[in-house]
Design goal:
With about 130 residues, this protein is mainly α. It has one domain. It is built from five helices and no strands. Helix 1 runs antiparallel to helix 2, helix 2 crosses helix 3 and helix 2 crosses helix 4. The longest helix has 19 residues. The protein is globular, with a radius of gyration of 14 Å.
Amino acid sequence: MRLWHQYLIPHLPSVKDYKGCSNQLGGQHTEIRMIFGSFKKHGKVNHSTVNYVNNYSLSYLRAYGLIVIDEMKKRGYNISQIIIDEYMNDEDAVDLYASAKNGLLLYKEHDDIYLEECLVNLRGKGIELDFKSN
């Protein structure tokens, strides 16, 4: 379970992009839904790579989800309106999403070190992104 660094979302491969490459973008949407399921069932998420999400309101995860959904829609995916509405009905999430579109990092844990960890993880999967950090 992993939330990719927020800045990598527009660069993640999907089956619509690369033949034979895993669908990291669609998988990210699935991970988000699994985290929501964990919150619903247990009141928190319990996985070492995403435990930091417990320190934030669910509005942050919804805002992150909107970033992923936005990218999926750009690539021609059909996203359930029920899920979109679930995220959009959270005013704080919508505000955070708008701020994120203007450069706000939603999770402070998504720092430069984490960005490099994500890139190394992707390289280990045979995925070399055309991404340059600032």
